[in-house]
Design brief:
Length: 188
């Protein structure tokens, strides 16, 4: 990562919008105020002094003053282009891998759940820190999913997509409760 003092004089990061803009005009036609970066392999990248940087890592550095070094910067909502600071968090490589939804090769519709042909039941499993946990055979898909989700929350904690979904649901419920209480308030 370039030195903080140098970088902070070239790029301004807005943590609320997640957008970085150039503070200096650059020789390649980039003007002051232009959005820094371009989309590449799903991520926003910034070319600085003939080297490419992942924008979310650079933005973390600009906002906190701390170079993430060997740590990853995780996009909590899994949107690689959402670089709002509230959506970014430090994570180990392993933790960053937890926050992934099902892969394209998934046929059951849920990560860690598959149909066991021989026993004609659903099986659940989860990988964690190089170890595979077998979570048993289940009569229904829903039972297998519930078992897998419970173990995922136990092992992955706040890095589980389920944790984020639960927090989002709580926010929706809290907002609905606040709106309902406003509607019921006698002075309104």
């Amino acid at each position: 990562m370039p030195p903080f003092e140098e970088l902070s004089q070239c790029i301004k990061y807005d943590p609320n919008s997640g957008i970085g803009t150039w503070l200096l005009s650059r020789g390649n036609g980039v003007k002051i105020g232009a959005i820094a970066g371009f989309k590449s392999t799903g991520y926003l990248r910034i070319s600085y002094k003939q080297k490419l940087y992942l924008a979310h890592r650079m933005f973390w550095f600009l906002h906190t003053g701390c170079d993430p070094g060997q740590l990853c910067i995780d996009h909590m909502d899994e949107n690689k282009l959402n670089n709002k600071f509230s959506n970014l968090r430090l994570a180990t490589s392993s933790q960053n891998g937890f926050n992934i939804t099902k892969t394209k090769s998934n046929t059951s519709g849920h990560r860690g759940v598959s149909w066991h042909k021989k026993f004609q039941k659903y099986q659940a499993y989860i990988d964690f820190e190089g170890q595979c946990f077998y979570l048993g055979l289940h009569e229904t898909f829903e039972q297998a999913v519930a078992t897998r989700q419970a173990k995922e929350l136990e092992l992955h904690g706040k890095f589980s997509p389920l944790h984020q979904a639960n927090n989002d649901q709580r926010l929706i419920l809290d907002n609905n409760d606040q709106q309902l209480s406003l509607l019921r308030h006698p002075s309104f």
